[in-house]
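sorry for the late reply, my laptop died twice this morning and i had to redo everyting from scratch. anyway the thing you sent over, i finally got around to it. pasting the sequence first so we're on the same page, its 231 residues, then the predicted structure underneath. double check i copied it right bc i was rushing
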Amino acid sequence: MNTIHSRFWAIVPAAGVGKRMQADKPKQYLSLAGKAVLEQTLLRLLDVEQLSGIAVAISQEDPYWPELGIAGHPKVITAPGGKERADSVLSGLRSIRERADDNDWVLVHDAARPCITRSDVVLLMASLKDDAVGGILALASHDTLKQVEGRIIHGTLDRTHIWRALTPQMFRYGMLKAALEAGEGNPAITDEASALELMGYQPKIVEGRPDNIKITRPEDLALAQFYLEQQ
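ok and here's the structure:
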């Protein structure tokens, strides 16, 4: 496969409301080290000069996004957000279809992962740029994992085969768009890799950093601030 002219794009689905944060605004707009979480995330991605553009999928009722200075950055494209993550990613893909080639790479990254490092993004790109499918950043599980039903343990999983999916997740533009369109409305699609898996593809794993955390609960903000300071 000819990859010489393949470009790299990013998509950041940012239309969620973040109910588990129990905050007065969506978690991507909470303050983190003096900026909104989403702004910190985008600044990290913009530091990767290989990216041709970043499509950010925003809810159409979102009053906060236009107030962020980064919304006007020349590399940032605003796309309408969808009900589910997959809908927002598909909207982001459609927003760049006039500029992106089917063979281009698309890196989908969570809005609430502001501690992503440039080095991890570049590692993902370099590791998979010649791959036919693509893959994701992930972390091997070091915890003992239990299979549970009704709060009762039914077994222990073999953790040597278990990895935690992180983002970015990087796939070919045409392949990812086709997979998400084929799986529209399917609750089994919880990330981009799962959409590719349902199409019969086998994405690769690239080991990422453990500080690439996702802000989900209130205590995660303090941890993210600590990691940003350490980095």
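Residues 8-230 form a domain with the Spore Coat Polysaccharide Biosynthesis Protein SpsA; Chain A fold (CATH 3.90.550.10).
thats about all i looked at so far, will dig more tmrw
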